[in-house]
């Protein structure tokens, strides 16, 4: 997917010899380059570093996330090089030694990346992706990794939430016009599909990612004809096998519905069936019941009803609870921007865990922001019913699964401890996806990622999918890791007097 | 800016002969192409159409917006072509006639675009941009126009809001890692600068758009050295003239501050000055006062204090009201995603206003969503003190400015009428930016757009900049336009019986 086919013949793009935005080495914060410069200057850049990428809170106040964006992140890392123009630009900033800039030309990512497979269900506080590489390699890729994985995980999770409450109805992504930039739209379409969206309206996403594309018509279509019936007929004439009619340009019940019924009859007379009608304003629960009843009464029980107009998982849930009769939910703005309660961004972070064989951590005044030091491993338990049951983060040196009765602790609150129960089967849910800078797993089809996400969502403990105040899926620290963390905190705090508290 | 210099030598991108995402004709919703097909099939595609782009509510519950993204939108429209691969993809969908696909190869935008200049302050309900072109040209570009202009206007407005409460402090954009995709980050950096951000951390945005880039260092820098003081010294050694030290890796007051003071003294001994310190956690109001006092007492009144950590215009305002002593506000997530109250997306729409000489409108059950029919003109009044005072949308045929005493009405509520006062000077704030498909205005420097935005914000009526419940800037419909709208509504409603109301 890095190298899609050209849209225009080469002669049209002859002068557009640019690195695509998403592959540029400059897609980074300046401070990464300043730090690289420093590490290089002080001869530290080749020290082996371990960084973990994780988030501290599930998006939207929910209880899980769907991990997405990995494929794009790996593409980015694998091909990353500093070409002449990037170096020339950095030179123009007058911030960097010439010898450092020369060294950048030899920069390659040569490290290892472990990650949950894309489409996995993941939780707060566990290392989702771990980079092991020379310090200046691991540091540089932080911004792009976070940019790609934060956003796609946010959108995939939103899609999964919409699907989880749609009661078997389809969710489709209709957000291109409200997405955050052209590539934001494209990434959003991809991520929404992984999270469970059945299709997108974004044609470019269809082309680039092979996603199913769908669409109806706009109000402008109806307004372009002398009257609505003429407009509906004209549309159906052209797309007899795939006609969805938008009912609300004039008035949904008084005009759109009877005209759609007329066209449905006419289509049937010609041997095809109207596919769907779309409601885009007004009281969707009420209108959908009226429209369903009218379609059924007229002998069209198979015509689907699609809803649009600022939908979100909360709106879908509320429509269903009010008895709406909807088959397809076209979700736009809220899906592609990851909008809503606690939304808009996933606060994923990328923290140094080990350098040159020594565990590292960020302390700070805020305990919830204290990172987990050292190389770690994630263990995931399934119950005997194949339900996901418990994730444990252990020291990387722990080669055996957690044991029954082990006392584990809450990552955000070490006073909350539990003993691991019997009856769990443990596995390592992460895999090595890059080794020596080269990908070692094949790209997966988006359909497979969607299938993985759907499968894992269906195996979550009851209540975990709930939109608000969900059951908290257990993520714990192993006893050894908790001990190691406390020891490092004590060492770092030694000798600190004054504190950062405003009440001190 | 469409054709930035290459980052890598051509041989590296030889196989990446793709149209950049933001220039593809497939960056559109499928239904646009379905409608184009239909217009073409029914011989309507060359009918002259007028579409208006506008929004119905200012973002974030505020009273204005800063218009941004125009340059990118015009670049897109001017170069838009259907190349072989785009056509081949559309062919593969089996939705379109071969003759239509052949016709698409000849598709060009040949129309006119009028718009507020980029960086203008704009308001709800007024046509911000008007496209006059053959129907199939005007229809196709809807998705890309909305995508580009909605998002950049959202971010530029957020930046302006942050600047408006920063009391002379600088706002800088630090959001790349939380932005919505790589290009979302780039667009956001551009728009934030227009809205008043002084600089960005995004190096790619620096290169592509010539923006000032800034940065400090991360916690990982400190953790990579044996201790914080060593880390600070190492950083200052490399960037003596531009050192900003992050204070909270261990403990802001107990460790970061005294170590920064040591380094500040050492730098001064070598003839340079520490530039700034950065606070990234804890009670920023309290910590900034303590740090300011310590810096002042030690003889460093010119060292700036920068704050980061989930800032927004509301947080900045609250910090200042609590007596924080901050000079630089690094705003990330909230700025680049346009997050917060009513944020996440600007609900800009693009509505057909006239076709083939006849006014058109969307009626629907929701009066606030009823569009303004016909060709229109925008008039903007300045008071004698050069304050922006009043915007009036009139019929396009009105060649004279609105007159004193004219009865104008509220776009969302025709019952709210006012008479235009004396003492106003009227002008046409929009300009023709594209004619016959070619741009007729030169691209403007981003500094000029920022200057325009800052100037217009400073000339808004008192209270309009307020973050919440601002003074409502007057935007009215001329008497003639209101009459024309009512007549068309009556005509459309003729003969409608049943209604869409849930209580009917």
UniProtKB/TrEMBL annotation, chains A, B:
Keyword RNA-binding: no
Pfam families for this protein: NAPRTase_C, NAPRTase_N
Keywords assigned: Glycosyltransferase, Ligase, Phosphoprotein, Pyridine nucleotide biosynthesis, Transferase
Gene3D superfamilies, per the entry: Aldolase class I, nicotinate phosphoribosyltransferase
GO biological processes: NAD+ biosynthetic process via the salvage pathway
Domain (Nicotinate phosphoribosyltransferase N-terminal): residue spans on this chain: 26-150
Enzyme Commission code(s) on record: 6.3.4.21
GO cellular component, one term: cytosol
Domain of life: Bacteria
InterPro entries for this protein: Aldolase_TIM, NAPRTase_C, NAPRTase_N, Nic_PRibTrfase-Fam, Nic_PRibTrfase_pncB, Nicotinate_pribotase-like_C
Record bears the keyword Mitochondrion: no
Residue numbers spanned by region Disordered: 399-420
PTM info: Transiently phosphorylated on a His residue during the reaction cycle. Phosphorylation strongly increases the affinity for substrates and increases the rate of nicotinate D-ribonucleotide production. Dephosphorylation regenerates the low-affinity form of the enzyme, leading to product release.
Residue ranges occupied by any Nicotinate phosphoribosyltransferase C-terminal domain in the UniProt entry: 375-483
Pathway: Cofactor biosynthesis; NAD(+) biosynthesis; nicotinate D-ribonucleotide from nicotinate: step 1/1
MF GO annotations: nicotinamide phosphoribosyltransferase activity; nicotinate phosphoribosyltransferase activity
SUPFAM superfamilies tied to this protein: Nicotinate/Quinolinate PRTase C-terminal domain-like (SSF51690), Nicotinate/Quinolinate PRTase N-terminal domain-like (SSF54675)
Reactions accelerated catalytically: 5-phospho-alpha-D-ribose 1-diphosphate + nicotinate + ATP + H2O = nicotinate beta-D-ribonucleotide + ADP + phosphate + diphosphate
Chain's role: Catalyzes the first step in the biosynthesis of NAD from nicotinic acid, the ATP-dependent synthesis of beta-nicotinate D-ribonucleotide from nicotinate and 5-phospho-D-ribose 1-phosphate.
PANTHER family given in the database record: NICOTINATE PHOSPHORIBOSYLTRANSFERASE
Family: Belongs to the NAPRTase family.
Name of the protein in question: Nicotinate phosphoribosyltransferase
The species this protein was found in: Deinococcus ruber
């Amino acid at each position: 997917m890095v190298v899609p086919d050209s849209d225009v013949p080469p002669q049209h793009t002859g002068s557009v010899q640019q690195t695509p935005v998403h592959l540029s080495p400059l897609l980074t914060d300046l401070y990464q380059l300043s730090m690289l410069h420093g590490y290089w200057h002080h001869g530290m850049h080749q020290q082996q570093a371990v960084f973990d990428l994780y988030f501290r809170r599930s998006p939207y106040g929910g209880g899980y996330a769907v991990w997405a964006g990995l494929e794009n992140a790996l593409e980015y890392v694998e091909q990353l090089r500093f070409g002449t123009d990037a170096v020339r630009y950095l030179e123009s900033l007058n911030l960097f030694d010439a010898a450092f800039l020369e060294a950048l030309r030899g920069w390659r990512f040569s490290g290892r990346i472990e990650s949950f497979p894309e489409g996995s269900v993941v939780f707060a506080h566990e290392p989702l992706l771990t980079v092991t590489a020379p310090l200046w390699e691991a540091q540089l890729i932080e911004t792009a990794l976070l940019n790609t994985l934060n956003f796609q995980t946010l959108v995939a999770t939103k899609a999964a939430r919409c699907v989880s409450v749609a009661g078997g109805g389809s969710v489709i992504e209709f957000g291109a016009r409200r997405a955050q930039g052209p590539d934001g739209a494209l990434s959003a379409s991809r991520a929404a599909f992984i999270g469970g969206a059945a299709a997108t309206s974004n044609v470019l996403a269809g082309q680039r990612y092979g996603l199913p594309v769908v669409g109806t018509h706009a109000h402008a279509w109806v307004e372009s004809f002398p009257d609505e019936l003429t407009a509906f007929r004209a549309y159906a004439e052209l797309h007899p096998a795939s006609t969805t009619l938008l009912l609300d340009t004039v008035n949904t019940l008084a005009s759109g519905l009877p005209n759609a019924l007329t066209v449905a009859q006419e289509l049937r007379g010609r041997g095809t069936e109207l596919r769907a009608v779309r409601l885009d304003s007004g009281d969707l629960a009420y209108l959908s019941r009226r429209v369903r009843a009218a379609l059924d009464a007229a002998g069209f029980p198979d015509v689907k009803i699609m809803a649009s107009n600022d939908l979100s998982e909360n709106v879908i849930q509320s429509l269903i609870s009010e008895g709406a009769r909807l088959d397809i939910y076209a979700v736009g703005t809220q899906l592609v921007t990851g909008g809503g309660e606690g939304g808009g961004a996933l606060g994923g972070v990328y923290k140094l865990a080990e350098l040159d064989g020594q565990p590292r951590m960020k302390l700070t005044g805020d305990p919830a922001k204290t990172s987990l030091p050292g190389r770690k491993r994630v263990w995931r338990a399934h119950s005997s019913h194949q339900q996901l049951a418990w994730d444990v983060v252990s020291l990387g040196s722990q080669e055996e699964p957690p044991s029954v009765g082990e006392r584990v602790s809450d990552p955000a609150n070490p006073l909350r401890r539990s003993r691991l129960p019997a009856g769990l089967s443990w596995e390592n849910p992460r895999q090595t996806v890059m080794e020596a800078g080269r990908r070692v797993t094949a790209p997966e089809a988006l359909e497979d990622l969607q299938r993985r996400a759907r499968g894992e969502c269906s195996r979550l403990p009851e209540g975990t999918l709930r939109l608000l105040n969900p059951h908290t899926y257990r993520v714990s620290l192993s006893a050894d890791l908790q001990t190691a963390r406390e020891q490092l905190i004590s060492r770092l705090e030694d000798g600190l007097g004054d504190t950062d508290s405003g009440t001190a």
